[in-house]
Amino acid sequence: MVANIVNSPELYFHRPGADFTRRRLLPVERTVWVVLSLLRQSLSVEIGHFFQRLDAPEDMPTKSALVQARQKIKYQFFEHLFHQVAGLFYACFEPLRWRRFRLWAADGSGFRLPDIDELGEEFGWHVNQHWAVASARIVAHFDVLNQIIANAFFHTRYEAESFIATWHIHTVPSDVLMIYDRGYPAQVIPWLHRYFGSQCLVRLSLTHSIVVKEFVASKKRQLIVCEQINHRSKRMLRALGIPFGPNETVEYRLVRYELPTGEVEVLLTTLTDTKRYPARDFGPLYNKRWGVETCFFSLKSLLQLARFSAVTVNNAWQDIYATLIEYNLLSAVHHSMREEVSQVNSRRDTPCQPNRNVGIGILKSFIVRLFLRPRENLEAEIAKLERYLLKCLEPVRENNRPRTPKMMRLGERHNWEHNSGQSGQ
Fold first, then answer.
1. How many distinct structural domains can be found in the chain?
2. 99: Cβ contacts below 8 Å, ≥ 6 apart
3. Which phi and psi angles does 46 have, rounded to 5°?
4. Which segments of 277-348 does DSSP mark as H helices, in order?
5. This prediction's pTM
6. Could you report the per-residue pLDDT of 284-320, keeping only the tens digit for each?
7. CB neighbour list of residue 85: distance below 8 Å, 6 or more residues apart
8. How many other CB atoms are there within 10 angstroms of residue 412's CB atom?
9. Which residues touch 421 (CB under 8 Å, ≥6 apart)?
10. Which domain holds residue 382?
11. Does any domain span residue 11?
């Protein structure tokens, strides 16, 4: 079905054969790109801007027409388009890798939805002693080297993030090294990655188990462990429907990593070849996981994931997937600019990188030029877009460098939730 998303969009119409049969101001291609331009202001303002860029301001439709047009398209169109855009990135570009691996991080976060009962029933509720609000959670597989959201899984707050991440390990390609923070079940995760043919790196608590405690006390740099899986891991494998033997074992490697402050961290990895993958590599490698935190910051604050343009279930899903698609489109443009950015950095003392916040606004204004204008203009428009973005580079900041607090405007539009256990940026 995904392969037919462009050639056969009618498969995603609520009424195939009836929807979009007459030529109106909002045919299906315009409707899709209006939604993908991210409707963060009032609908009338967004429609006006869109049709001005289309050079057709006199034919501007009403906001009611847009609401009705987008309701004709099943949100699965945008869901499948998100997966297709992520797949096309790897098909069209040679991705950055660590050794032979694509480096992904798995992490989750939550966001609120409009206070509508229909949305709460679809996405779930966040309940405390005072009230219940419609809320959803997302677990993302994020390519930290290429800045691509490779996959996204949604669940309610009643489902554990760790279980959702474990449930989807089978979707991880064999050339991926997945990085996990603390809080994920550390025994079943390496077992499942080995079972499905991929690799992982997990940060452990120093008191995670007796084996970890003894490893820390031993002051060893690394240790290969082979142990029987525990009862908790067996319960999870049963829940996943995966068969295992009565004496099932898991093999992994513990690596000791000392921070500049003198603190000790313990990392678990399925990469047990000590010669090919020396212990000194894993500390800096784990630090790259921070990219998924900045991704969530961008989604929630810069792209305003929690600001919806609709309150129906179908159109709310459209807004969510449009946000993920916009993030990946901008990352693809940034990836295509790597040589130009490298040339700029060769003339500067401080390395710079594209500014994602500015890029979001610039790409929004280029949506019409890139996707709704004659195809022969595409190369010139992409070159123009890259020239704009190159004028807005910002210095690269190290993760451990103190950051100046950013001033955020008040109001629901700019609110975003901190990721679990994080203080934000």
1. 2
2. 277
3. -65, -40
4. 282-287, 290-297, 313-336, 338-345
5. 0.90
6. 999 999 999 999 999 999 999 999 998 999 999 999 9
7. 325, 328, 329, 332
8. 10
9. 183
10. 338-396
11. no
